[in-house]
Every structure is written in C-alpha cells, then in structure tokens.
Amino acid sequence: MKVGKVLISAEEIQEALVRVGRQITEDYAGKDLLMVGILKGAFVIMADLARHVDLPVEFDFMAVSSYGDATKTSGVVRILKDLDEEIEGRDVLIVEDIIDSGLTLQYLMKNLMVRKPASLEIAAFLFKEGVDRPPLDVKYKAFNIGPEFVVGYGLDYQQKLRNLPYVGVMEED
Ligand code: IMP
Ligand code: MG
C-alpha cells in the first residue's frame, strides 16, 4: 500500500478549519467549553482547530482503540486513556479525526453522557459518506468524503503517515 492522490490539500484544510473555528466561537460564546480530542488521530486537528477558536477553552484527551492495524473496524472499543477531568455540567465538544462506522463515537457518546455534561457535541475533521452507521448527530464537519481509506493530517495507516500535512488516499502498490 502507498499514498496515492491528494484528496484534500493543506490549504483547503486550513480554510475549512477557519470556518469551523468561527462557528464554534459563535456557538460557545459565554459557555464553559471543554474540547476533548480522541487520540491519537485527533492531535493534529485539535492543535490547528483550537487556534481558530477565540474563547477561553480548556482541553482534555481520551485514547480509544477500535481498529487494530487493519483498515476495517472491529466494532470493539477499548478506553486506553480516560479524561483527566470530570465533565459534569461542562459544555463538551468531542474532536474526532474521522467518522467511518461511527462505532467509536456511538460508544463514546454513551459513555460520556452518563457523566452528565451540560452539553455534548461532535466535531469531526472527516465524515465518510455512503457508510451504514448508527444515527449520529455530528454538529461540526470540516469535510465529507467518500468511503475510501485515507491517511495524513492525523490519520494513520499502520500507525504511520499521521504527519502528512494533507489528506491522501491509500492505494495498492
Ligand atoms: P469508526 O469507529 O469506524 O467510525 O472509526 C473511527 C476510527 O477509525 C478513527 O478515529 C480512525 O482512527 C480510524 N479510521 C476510520 N477510517 C479511517 C481511514 O480512512 N483512515 C485512517 N483511519 C481511519
Ligand atoms: Mg487509526
């Protein structure tokens, strides 16, 4: 497998993050925003998106595993690292690299709702269209993409390629 064509350029990514950052800034004005990045994939978008959010926002991270090293989801979600902080009464925005089967987020939403946040929303960098998934209310999306396997800008293939500044499509050699 290798990286094929560029699907989303570095410039297009930054433009989209300006737009999403502005929406978040408007929607969460006067609120107690906590952005929760889902590791490892979300570390790149978290850093870039956060710099377009003009609010006294706090950050926390969770690490979950749903994939192993295959390119298909296993449906099994394990929490590898939980939040450092309590979220009761907080306005929580989950920041995720990509929504594919939606199983990771479905599990996380359920797990975090039990902790009684004031609000719980999702911001996804990429949203795969044409995939059968449980209903998920994704408030912020940077890009809709097709069902192909993509890498870069936080997304990995066997733990590599997260540092590509653009999003590329994986293809056979
Ligand atoms: P889901 O539970 O199937 O929605 O998958 C969520 C996780 O699977 C993401 O956070 C990624 O780590 C991984 N994933 C899903 N699709 C891709 C892809 O196209 N490239 C790289 N990782 C992916
Ligand atoms: Mg992954």
Would you write up a description of this structure?
It is built from 3 helices and 9 strands, in the order βαβαβββαββββ. It has 173 residues and is of the alpha/beta class. The chain has one domain: 3-Layer(aba) Sandwich (Rossmann fold). The strands form 2 sheets. It has a 6-stranded mixed β-sheet with strand order 4-3-2-5-6-7, with helices on both faces. It is globular and about 50 Å long. The termini are close together. The relative contact order is 0.22. The chain binds inosinic acid and magnesium ion (MG). Inosinic acid is lined by residues 41, 66-67, 73, 96-104, 149-151, 155-156.
Short description:
The protein has 173 residues and is of the alpha/beta class.
Counted by DSSP, the helix tally is: 3
> What is the C-level CATH assignment?
Alpha Beta
Shape: globular
- Which CATH architecture would you pick? 3-Layer(aba) Sandwich
Residue-averaged pLDDT: 93
Radius of gyration based on Cα positions: 15 Å
User: What structural class is derived from the secondary structure elements?
Assistant: alpha/beta
What proportion of the residues form beta strands (DSSP E)? Answer: 25-35%
- The largest sheet has its strands arranged as 4-3-2-5-6-7
How many angstroms separate the termini?
5 Å
List bound small molecules: inosinic acid, magnesium ion
What name does the CATH topology carry? Rossmann fold
* Biggest beta-sheet profile: 6 strands, mixed
**Count of domains:** 1
**In oligomeric terms, what are we looking at?**
single chain
